[in-house]
Amino acid sequence: MTARSARPAATRAELVGGRRIVIKIGSSSLIDPDGRFSPERLGALSDAIAEYVRGGHEAVLVSSGAQAAGLEGLGLIHRPKGLAQAQAAASVGQGRLMAAYTAAFGVHDLTVGQVLLTAEDTIRRAHYRNALRVLGELLHRDVIPVVNENDAVATDEIRFGDNDRLAALVAHLVRADGLILLTDVDGLYDAPPSRPGARPVRDVTSFGQLGGLEVTGRGSMVGTGGMVTKVQSAAMASSSGIPVLLAGAAQVREALAGQPDVGTFFHATGRRLSARRMWLGYAASMRGTVTVDDGAARAITNGKKSLLAVGVTAVEGDFAAGEPVEIRSAAGEVLARGLAGFSAAELGRVKGLSQDEIAAQLGPERAQPAVHRDELVTQARSRRPG
Asked: Which residue of 106, 118, 369, 375 shows the fewest CB atoms closer than 10 Å?
């Protein structure tokens, strides 16, 4: 995949004017008023995306809806309650969902490719690289990837939990110029939209401005996300250099045209991360916790320094050198995430020691940082929003 510009889009028009975007559609936007999967709504979405792609752009579609598409086949009306029932619905529905997308995009002579991911595919770096390669190959061959969490095999213990977070991770994976989150609400409001006097929020330049907003609720009987997860997803992407547009699925054509009064635009608030640092900051599964003193906390957050063993006060977990760990202050605040320079056992022995003392105890070649600054992502990058 080609490198992206370091300058993020500053407007809706610039977001959709980029070469590559990720579009996420929720289950609530693919069902009819009776709660049944709607091929017609899926077709309208596909038509709009096809028109956008025909305009010279690339699109990756992160689509919910597998469980909703499988309900009828299992004789169910509402979202499955048990894990086994949910997995069965997803198993039946995934084929139906992809058949509908294949037909809908086929009308426009466009090919789609299914990419099913689990959280395991992002918390393990080898799996993460494999996902990156397959998405890149599909885009290289002008295929529209249709991404979904692999609900048929995902467990409650190892899963994304909703496709909003997955969409933010995919946007990083493919180096997208922007992320569009389509839902059944036409944007973010300063109160529940059903409440009289609720006003739309058109632009978010800092997540501090959302502090007083009441953001609650779930979109439908078959969805797993809601406005909270969408704001969290937007924070994850925008804080790492990817602008986000949250809009109603009924406005997908207007959103893809960059119209100024559509949805809520979340401006990029941080620099774009490399794939490696993005994986470490947002996707990697932590193997342990390292607690540091105040001096070390200032060094790694304000001074952008490596974490040295002399500043480590406690070690928890059973990790090997090179595995991801969470770094916390004495008060328990998450400061950063990083790749450990020592195993948990080694770091437990050398915590509080200077580099010279480590060299004397373990040998000069082992006098290294507990976490090197090049393998460290500080709180603003590593903390999951919300």
From this structure: 106
